[in-house]
């Protein structure tokens, strides 16, 4: 029985994806751009189940998942069954590798690894660029986790032309530090939050329009290896995305006290000469973009304010991979 293992890294968007044009196919309102992270990744093993009537089986970090998760997964695997004409059930064993606990397990690396593995298992032999479209169907941001470095998700307007591509392998003086911050409350899912933002925020359309310009400018900054421009665009883009959420009705607030404390820390460190920029997603964690060569001195300073166990340092991650095992 053939068995495949895939590995995909998480990614953090510098130009954010926030909102769908098409919910079923996950076609976004705007193109986005991210940085793939080496420190956070998912490994996923897949094999067929002998008796096809058994249904798919899904373990995450060694734990059999509940019915809701199984339904979601089976619906996703159906895409591959349809494409290949192979109707077999699949055993999925997935492991999230996250250095510290707390809300960093990512759907991006998860669906990217799964798409890579299923592509092999169902013998579809699609190119990585083609696989980005299949990863996208699981979770939009997963499309960008098929590649390492700086990755653009070109929005397109249908399944066939909404895909991700590598812009630059980011093997220059750049790294990311993640502050894992406390969160007692279960967050509103990004799917629900995006919909609410589109439907109720008066700022949303202006934000989407500005993303086009941000994207062009950040791509130019990447080309020029201009860290300053890159950081400034990313920071502004993230806060503008959060402004659309804050201005939706009812408001969506992912900031926690510690998120604000972290942002203020970044600002005060910057005033003292550390060139660092922050970004935030659909949760309280703050991600800090920095020069790789300055990581240690930045972490030393952050440790004065935040517990060492809450600080994750990450290099740039590479492309997703897959191989046959056993
Ligand atoms: O792919 P999703 O549905 O998990 O949405 C990701 C949304 C953000 O992380 C906030 C932005 C992004 O582009 O990754």
Give the key terms.
8 helices; 326 residues; single chain; binds (3R)-3-hydroxy-3-methyl-5-(phosphonooxy)pentanoic acid; alpha+beta
Draw up the topology in text.
Layout: E1 3-15, E2 20-22, E3 27-28, E4 32-48, E5 57-60, E6 63-64, H1 67-84, E7 90-97, H2 107-121, H3 128-138, E8 150-154, E9 163-168, E10 175-179, H4 190-200, H5 204-223, H6 227-246, H7 257-271, E11 277-280, E12 286-290, H8 295-302, E13 311-314, E14 321-325
Parallel strand pairs: 5-7
Antiparallel strand pairs: 1-4, 1-14, 2-3, 4-7, 4-8, 5-6, 8-9, 10-12, 10-13, 11-12
Helix pairs in contact: 2-3, 5-6
The protein binds (3R)-3-hydroxy-3-methyl-5-(phosphonooxy)pentanoic acid (PMV).
Q: Class by helix and strand content? A: alpha+beta
Give the N-terminus to C-terminus distance in angstroms: 9 Å
The total of beta strands comes to 14
Shape label: globular
Listed once per kind, the bound small molecules are:
(3R)-3-hydroxy-3-methyl-5-(phosphonooxy)pentanoic acid
Radius of gyration: 19 Å
The stretches of 5 or more residues where confidence is low (pLDDT under 50) are none
The SSE string, one letter per element, is EEEEEEHEHHEEEHHHHEEHEE
Q: Helicity range of the residues?
A: 25-40%
- Share of residues in strands: 25-35%
Calculate the mean pLDDT score and round it: 95
Our count of helices gives: 8
**What does the main sheet amount to?**
8 strands, mixed
């Amino acid at each position: 029985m053939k068995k495949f293992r895939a590995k995909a890294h998480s990614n953090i968007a510098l130009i954010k994806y926030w909102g769908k044009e098409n919910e079923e196919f996950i076609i976004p309102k705007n193109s986005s751009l991210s940085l793939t992270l080496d420190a956070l990744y998912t490994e996923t093993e897949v094999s067929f189940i002998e008796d096809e009537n058994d249904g798919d089986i899904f373990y995450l970090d060694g734990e059999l998942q509940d019915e809701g998760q199984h339904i979601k997964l089976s619906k996703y695997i159906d895409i591959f069954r349809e494409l290949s004409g192979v109707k077999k059930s699949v055993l999925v064993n997935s492991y999230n590798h996250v250095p510290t606990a707390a809300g960093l397990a990512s759907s991006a690396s998860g669906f990217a690894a799964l798409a890579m593995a299923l592509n092999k298992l169902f013998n579809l032999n699609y190119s990585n660029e083609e696989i980005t479209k299949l990863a996208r169907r699981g979770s939009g941001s997963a499309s960008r986790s098929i590649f390492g470095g700086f990755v653009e998700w070109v929005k397109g307007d249908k399944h066939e032309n909404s895909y991700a591509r590598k812009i630059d392998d980011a093997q220059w003086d750049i790294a990311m530090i993640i502050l894992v911050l406390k969160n007692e409350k279960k967050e509103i899912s990004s799917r629900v939050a995006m919909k609410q933002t589109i439907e109720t925020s008066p700022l949303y359309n202006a934000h989407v329009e500005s993303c086009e310009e941000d994207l062009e400018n950040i791509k130019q900054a990447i080309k020029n290896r201009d860290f300053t421009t890159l950081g400034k665009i990313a920071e502004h883009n993230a806060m503008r995305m959060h402004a659309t959420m804050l201005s939706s009705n009812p408001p969506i607030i992912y900031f926690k006290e510690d998120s604000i404390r972290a942002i203020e820390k970044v600002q005060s460190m910057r005033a003292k000469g550390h060139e660092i920029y922050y970004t935030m997603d659909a949760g309280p964690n703050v991600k800090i973009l920095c020069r790789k060569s300055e990581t240690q001195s930045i972490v030393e300073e952050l440790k004065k304010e935040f517990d060492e166990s809450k600080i994750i340092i990450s290099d740039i991650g590479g492309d997703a991979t897959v191989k046959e095992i056993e």
